[in-house]
UniProtKB/TrEMBL annotation:
Family designation: Belongs to the triosephosphate isomerase family.
GO molecular function: triose-phosphate isomerase activity
UniProt keyword annotations, A-Z: Cytoplasm, Gluconeogenesis, Glycolysis, Isomerase
Catalysed reactions listed for this entry: D-glyceraldehyde 3-phosphate = dihydroxyacetone phosphate
Enzyme class: isomerase
Assembly notes: Homodimer.
Residue positions binding substrate: N11, W12, K13, G175, S214, G235, G236
Pfam name, any one: TIM
Listed name of the protein: Triosephosphate isomerase
Pathway connected to this protein: Carbohydrate biosynthesis; gluconeogenesis; Carbohydrate degradation; glycolysis; D-glyceraldehyde 3-phosphate from glycerone phosphate: step 1/1
Length: 251
């Protein structure tokens, strides 16, 4: 038996200005007010976080950011510290998304530092891992993702590893309408769990592992039915309150 609750997180990426965020916030909260068996998170752009704090701070919807820096404060132009996110009522933060690894050249060492800093400030990291298409076609997906997990968690104690969330997001499935098959997604999430067990022991059993990549209201159920898939990290389908609420209800 495990104590894993389903977690459905939206990643708004670089969408939603403050007015759109407010309209979403007001509409969405009523649509999911009945959801008690799942955790719901919206990871908004930094510029919209204060709006979600104003609308949701007392509610059931958790607020998250999409990145964080690893220093407490200082001369780091353009960066945002973990404490600044806590000040904006964030409890989650996405770290190591493939778009940042790709466009911003973030490497495993930097990602490991960010995870450690987030945990020191009681922010729950959602660590994103996943292979690209050529790694999948070459049969290297499992070994690549396993090594990402090991490197990105290398700075952490076993008890800290127990506090994180992992999102398996195959790069080729993001924003493409191509979802990994439930079998392939399950195989990878099980491999991630066994890697976690290797480094953190029994804590691995309670770590939420999400799938991400073209998740929609009509394909979520077949994914979350799988034993090691504990929810989803959702991009495009989290931008519309009705669509995202339907997805959560179907999960
Ligand atoms: O990258 C993702 C979430 O972090 C997935 O995006 P899509 O759901 O738009 O494919």
């Amino acid at each position: 038996m495990n104590s894993r609750k389903q977690l459905i997180a939206g990643n708004w990426k670089m969408f939603m200005n403050t007015q759109q965020a407010r309209e979403f916030a007001l509409d969405f909260q009523g649509r999911v007010a009945d959801v008690t068996d799942k955790e719901i998170v919206i990871c908004a752009p930094f510029t919209a976080l204060h709006v979600l704090k104003e609308e949701w701070e007392e509610g059931i919807i958790h607020i998250g950011a999409q990145d964080v820096f690893y220093q407490k404060e200082g001369a780091y132009t353009g960066e945002i510290s973990p404490a600044m996110l806590v000040d904006l009522a964030c409890t989650y933060v996405i770290i190591g998304h493939s778009e940042r690894r790709g466009y911003l050249k973030e490497n495993d060492e930097l990602i490991a530092q960010k995870i450690k800093a987030a945990l020191e400030n009681n922010l729950k990291p959602i660590l994103c891992v996943g292979e690209n298409l050529s790694q999948r076609e070459d049969g290297k997906a499992l070994s690549f993702v396993r090594s990402q997990v090991e490197k990105d968690l290398s700075e952490l104690s076993s008890s800290d590893i127990g506090k994180i969330v992992i999102a398996y997001e195959p790069v080729w499935a993001i924003g493409t309408g191509k979802t990994a098959s439930p079998q392939d997604a399950q195989e990878m999430c099980a491999a991630i769990r066994s890697t976690l067990a290797g480094i953190a022991g029994a804590a691995a059993n309670n770590i939420q592992i999400l799938y991400g990549g073209s998740v929609k209201a009509d394909n979520i159920k077949e994914l979350t039915k799988k034993k090691d898939i504990d929810g989803a990290l959702v991009g495009g389908a989290s931008l519309d309150p009705k669509q995202f609420a339907d997805l959560i209800h179907n999960a």
